[in-house]
Each structure stands twice: as structure tokens, then as C-alpha cells.
Amino acid sequence: MRGFLVLIFVGCAAPKPVPAPPPAGRLMGLGRGLTTTEEIKARMKQISKALGVKCDHCHDVMDFSAPTPNKAIANLMSERFVDKLQPHPEGGPLMCGTCHQGRATFLDRTDQEALKRWMQANFVDKLHTKEGRPIECDTCHAGMRYKFLPRSL
Description:
- It contains six helices and two strands; from the N terminus they run H-H-H-E-H-H-E-H.
- By secondary structure, it is mainly alpha-helical.
- Strands 1-2 form a two-stranded antiparallel sheet.
């Protein structure tokens, strides 16, 4: 009887399996266009490394397709940067790591003048639109100076 109780206890304490990501073809944002589970996993590993985070930074690991604030931000970054801009002059693809370089939060907003200089040197001077046009502050911040990311869904 004692062995039976230990077995029941151990069975109850076992971690629940984490659900798989949603099937390819139904993805939006950063997963848009991916067609296989292997592609999804590879992209997510690339993003995770670029931001220095684990899956649960953006995902509800019990439901990977559930909306979360960080997923909304990641998809907005994809729309506003990855999909529309390219590094200058090489013309290669812009990826999360281009700016983040292993850190989820990479901008120091405590000194507005230093931030302006950093943005000028790293975005305005180094990036162009995919059509080859130079960018300016209003490319991303039109009508919302110093505001960019949503703070809720």
C-alpha cells in the first residue's frame, strides 16, 4: 500500500506537458509565412537569442496562441521595423538582433538627449526603407513623439 501511495504522489507531482505552438499556416506577426513546425521553432529560437529571453517572455506557455502584451509588442516591432526597413547600405534583412543584440530592453530612456543621439546614429543614419528611402524620426514616431510601443493589448 505504501508503494502505491508513493506512485500516486509522484504521478500527481509530474509536470504537465507544455502544448505545442499553433500549426503553421495560421500564424501572424513574426510567424507569418512560416509553413512547418521546424521553421516556427527555428524562428522562435532566433528571436529568443536576439532578445536574451525564454519562450515565456512573449508566450503563455499553456497556450502559445494566446495574446500577450509582449507578443503584441514583438509583432508591432515586426510590422514597423523588420517588414519595412533594411540596414544601409548593405540592404540585408533587418532582424530582431540587429538592434536588440541579446537584450530585450536596449534603450536607456533616462537621458532624452543621449537617447536622441543614439537613435540618430543607430536608426536614422543606418537604416533605409525597403524602397531605398532614408528614414527620419517620423517614419516610426509620426504623430506620437517619444511614444512607440503599446502598453496593453
